Amino acid sequence: MESGVLGFGGIIGGAYSLYSYGADNTFGTADDVGIGAWTFGGTNTVTLGAGSYYYTVLGGATKATNYLIGSQVTAVPEPETYALLGAGLGIIGFVASRRRRDF
After folding, report:
1. How far apart are CA 31 and CA 80, in angstroms?
2. 39 near 65, Cβ under 8 Å?
3. Which whole-number Å values give the CA distances from 7 to 12, 27, 45, 53, 77, in the listed order?
4. Which of these, 12, 18, 24, 86, is most buried using a 10 Å CB contact count?
């Protein structure tokens, strides 16, 4: 599972929702799955599985201000990365063993 932080600075008391894309992978369609809805209160943390997500923000400001909305996601290596690492180490081991035999 991937974990991330969804931070909202400067928006207290508003509301936001987190969604996962549905089968058609289209934003805002009827088959999208709601992950949860929260009220702004600083920082909320949600643990997510692999997939594509988007969030919506509802509410308005009564005065001019700056808002910060951001997501941080922990990178997870793809399986191909491990395969390439293993192949590279295998080649290095093979070359090292041949050099020992040649001397």
Report:
1. 31
2. no
3. 11, 21, 8, 15, 24
4. 18
- Domain residue ranges of the chain, discontinuous segments joined by +: 2-76
**What does the block give as tokens for 38?**
């929260």
Q: Which parts of the chain register pLDDT below 70? A: 1-46, 54-73, 102-103
| pTM: predicted TM-score of the whole model, two decimal places | 0.33
Q: Looking at residue 92, what is its pLDDT?
A: 94
Q: b or e along 21-57 (b: 16 or more beta carbons within 10 Å of the residue's beta carbon)? A: beeeeeeeeeebeeeeeeebeeeeeeebeeeebebee
The number of C-alpha atoms within 13 Å of 11 and in the hemisphere containing its C-beta is 21
DSSP per-residue codes, 11-23: --S-EEEEEE--T
